[in-house]
Amino acid sequence: MAVTQQLARIPAEYLASCRESADASPDGDPLWDPPSVDVLDLDWAPFLLERVCELGGLDDVRRDALRQALEGDTAIDLAFLNTHPHAIGPFGPDPTALSAAQVARAAELLGQIDFPALLAALPPDETEAASLIGNGADKIVGGPKKYLLEHFNALREFYRAASEQQLLVVLWWD
Predict the structure, then answer these.
(1) What is the pTM of this model?
(2) Contact 155/69 with Cβ under 8 angstroms?
(3) d(Cα 55, Cα 65) in Å, to the nearest integer?
(4) CA 104 to chain centre
(5) DSSP for 72-116?
(6) What are the pLDDT digits (tens) for 11-50?
(7) pLDDT digits (tens, 9 = 90+) for 108-131
(8) 3-class secondary structure for 117-164?
(9) Nearest alpha carbon to residue 94 among 174, 24, 26
């Protein structure tokens, strides 16, 4: 089974409900099951997206926003989501989250990134571009540019929608 990055946009009340369920359950089951429409599977794109932004010369403010959008923050305690046998991210680092305010800021800055221009800064040849990106980009069928553009656009739209609804974003690897 491949381990990929997952994101869920949820109301704060849902997270509180999961925390209460975990506290009340004898085995710590948080009853974590956000609607599939509110979950984004970023596959293996996070490292590659960051690398393209680095190669394309994206400024530090927007690179930091992308990094936070992909890594989350540890300020919100999610230990109850990482308890065996109900851990949501058993194959990677502990789950993280962004507050609604952090989501709004990330959405704003992601919206300012011209990802096609960053991709245009790469060599036009997909093989050369994949070699420069590294991190397995050469294994992407059809080349990395289309794959990364689709994943970046999905990430930006995911955060835009979460921001509009004032939702939190929880991130984990599964």
Answers:
(1) 0.95
(2) yes
(3) 16
(4) 14
(5) -BSSS--GGGG-TTS-S-TTSSPPEEE-HHHHHHHHHHHTT--HH
(6) 999 999 999 999 999 999 999 999 999 999 999 999 999 9
(7) 999 999 999 999 999 999 999 999
(8) HHHHCCCCCHHHHHHHHCCCHHHCCCCHHHHHHHHHHHHHHHHHHHHH
(9) 174
